[in-house]
Amino acid sequence: MKDIKNPMETEKQEWRKQQTQQRLKTWLTIFSPISLLLIWQFLSQSGLIDARFFPPPTAIISTFIELLTSGELFHHISISLVRIFAGFLLGVIPGIILGLCMGLYAPIRHFISPIIMALMPIPTLALLPIILIIFGIGEVSKVVTIAGSVFFPVVINTAAGVISIDSIYLDVAKNYEAGRKDFFLKIALPGSLPVMMEGIQMGQAIALLTIVAAEMMGARSGIGYLIWTSYSAFLLKEMFVGLILISFFGYIFSLLLRWLQRKLIPWR
Amino acid sequence: MRPKPKISIRELKKVFYKKQHSVTALENISLDIAEGEFVCLVGPSGCGKTTLLRILAGLENQSSGEFKIERSEKDRPNQSMVFQERGILPWLTVEENVAFGLKMRHQPKSHVKERTNYFLNKVGLAKFANMYPKELSGGMKQRVSIARAFANDPEILLMDEPFGALDEQNRYILQEELLSIWSETKKTVLFITHSIDEALYLSDRVLLMSAQPGKIIEEIKIDLPRPRKLEDIRSNPEMASKFLDIWRHLQVEVQGSRL
């Protein structure tokens, strides 16, 4: 039987148990991708899966280093990142502005939302041929494609964010005589920020999906181009390098946005 | 000649109109409240007391009738409201919340700082100035709300059941604090409550409202000397009979609105 006379000791043990469990969970999170890679390595090397289609991770890593030292990879990465950032900003900024206007002014909302609802289901990629005709095959068309797909989740979430502001805060603003500008900066913007940030998170994920596809169709550089040409030439190790880069940047971007979210919304 | 009332309400009427039928929320409310008076409005739920307050607060328009709030200074806001719970802005710190009204009226920075600090100290929240509301208890949030209203230095204060969601201990502490700030500033207050105890303890005058249509049907003067203690109210036989008076009235009203 346990020593029930010492409550401090039992609580301490209880606390330790919780700590151990917490550590175990962290380990599981780290362990899961590593174990996946290990299994892949084993299957590929033992010939249980075809190494031509699934080259072992170690081979992919050495290809990665080769591409990196030759400077080719850096070129693809930097051009893709520039396109993503430019397209992201070009989609997010008008999305926020229009979303705020829609949330704040009902006539604008009722006028614009049917247009948004009608355009939203069309994948921007399906519009790529038209975008190429209008903007040519240069950088602008890629940036516009990304902007187009980022814009929708941001505008919809921003408008929804403003509408979801508790009416009591609107009463407070009115009762304490907030002017137009103060109402916008002190009530509408901060009040809609949490939902708006969710839209931006979504936009970020979509931007990555779009860049790869856009670079597959109409580009001569970039991570998507690397994936597509490697695949066409049956250089699957190079293709996997491209795929893993995309997944890596997706992870980094969502970490960045989460950090930004904590900075912008400290009151949550 | 009697001095001009601070708030005068004449034949105020509010009708809510919805698909073919209308509900009269307020029926010919006429009322004078003197400068520096603390008046409590007591009535059953749905009797329109919040509607009356919202009209005075400029958050809703009356259907007919008028009201006037006597102004003493040009720069002073007409009224400030202490809302029910959730009335403070979650994205502003305690200090920014208290300063909110002053900042919205673009008062000079030093003035804002001074008044904000003064009232933060008054409600005992100086230590919590840089915290966000999510870190505060319900009682502390209402202190912020009260400090914000007083800091704004309005002609009159409107309070919409500010202590309704608090437990009894906290409620009593906040009532006491409110009275202490009020006695210092001598603001005119119109206060809504469900609690008869609260009304007797706080006010100079209790107004009883009936439901549907909302009317003021009785007025009871509370002329106990101040500063008061809750124990004084409880042990005073006259107050006990007033309590029962209001209690019976509310019973009848609640029963009546059930039929």
Polypeptide structure, described:
The complex is a heterodimer of chains A (268) and B (259). Chain A has 268 residues and is an all-alpha fold. Chain A has helices at residues 7-45, 57-70, 72-104, 106-119, 128-135, 139-163, 167-175, 180-218, 223-232, 236-264. Chain A is built from 10 helices and no strands. Chain A is flat. Helix content of chain A is 82%, strand content 0%. Chain A has one domain (72-264): MetI-like (MetI-like fold), CATH 1.10.3720. Chain B is α/β, with parallel strands linked by helices. Chain B has 2 domains: 31-60 and 155-259, Rossmann fold (3-Layer(aba) Sandwich); 88-153, no CATH class. Helix content of chain B is 39%, strand content 25%. Chain B has 8 helices and 9 strands. In chain B, the strands form 2 sheets. A 6-stranded mixed sheet of chain B has the order 5-6-7-3-8-9, with helices on both faces. Chain B has a 3-stranded antiparallel sheet with strand order 2-1-4, with helices on one face. Classes of the chains: A mainly alpha (268), B alpha/beta (259). At the A-B interface, helix 7 and helix 8 of A face strand 5 and helix 2 of B.
